[in-house]
Amino acid sequence: MARITAGVTTSHVPAIGAAFDRGDDQSDYWAPLFAGYEWSKKWIAAERPDVIVLVYNDHATAFSLECIPTFAIGCADEFPVADEGFGPRPVPNVMGHSELACHIAQSLILDEFDMTIMNQMEVDHGLTVPLSLMFGRVDAWPVRVVPIAVNVVQYPPPTGERCFKLGQAIRRAVQSFDEDLNVQVWGTGGMSHQLQGPRAGLINQPFDQAFLEKMNTDPSSLRAITHLEYVREAGSEGIELVMWLIMRGALHANCQELHRFYHVPASNTAVGHLILESPQDDGS
């Protein structure tokens, strides 16, 4: 039986990928941020997950205003790296796990989640930056990926409650897959930031720190945060944090926090990172 062993959250700021690709990760500005992932890289090298269910949002790459699915799942064997205006990032293509992805898609749809099935999809920095932060520079990613794209760009995005329930459904789907796989679920994006308007550059450190703490100790309270509260407290792009709740819903109710990191600023954005270990007995 496949099993979910851990969850990871991380911001996916595009400037992080640009700094990494230019070799600026050890510059005075960027070195403190990348240092926060050194423990994580050693941890994941020891954990050796087979598959990552990676929750992210597309940035007008695979989708546009002409078609915006609330939830989409990538079921292809391979996902090319998108050109976001400056050429594709110089990172490997992302290899999928079509068997597990199709199983998850079927399970979620029968569990009454209307998933958009993507048999062809380019992936942007929302997905590749987290991989670079966790695995560093590689010739090939040492893990296969099931991408799940969430609309947090065009109103209305899904609620935190709906996202948490999707995570629970993903857990059920993975546990019913008849293959011995070590699966992790990652929730990406956030933390507080706003890219436009009079509040451009907003960072709310108290809100972010409380969110990181409650991810493990009190996730139920996070499920109730409204769209308006996200905008007010975390900025217009802070809504990306609902994707973290998909990860948390996919884990055991009682997790162990292994690593936490928070850094400000990274291109006018607050960066948060968390690793939770999920017990294997069913107590969720």
Oligomeric assembly: single chain
Mean of all residue-level pLDDT scores: 96
Domain module count: 1
Structural classification: alpha/beta
What is the strand tally?
10
> What would CATH call the homologous superfamily?
LigB-like
Largest sheet: 8 strands, mixed
CATH architecture: 3-Layer(aba) Sandwich
DSSP strand content: 15-25%
Percentage of residues in helical conformation: 25-40%
Can you give a write-up of this model?
The protein is globular and about 45 Å long. It starts with a strand and ends in a 7-residue tail after the last strand. The strands form 2 sheets. An 8-stranded mixed β-sheet has the order 6-3-7-2-8-1-10-9, sandwiched between helices. A two-stranded antiparallel sheet has the order 4-5. By secondary structure, it is an alpha/beta fold. α4 (98-110) packs across α6 and α6 packs parallel to α10. It has a single domain, classed as LigB-like (Protocatechuate 4,5-dioxygenase, Chain B), CATH 3.40.830. It contains 10 helices and 10 strands. A hairpin with a 7-residue loop joins β9 and β10 (271-277).
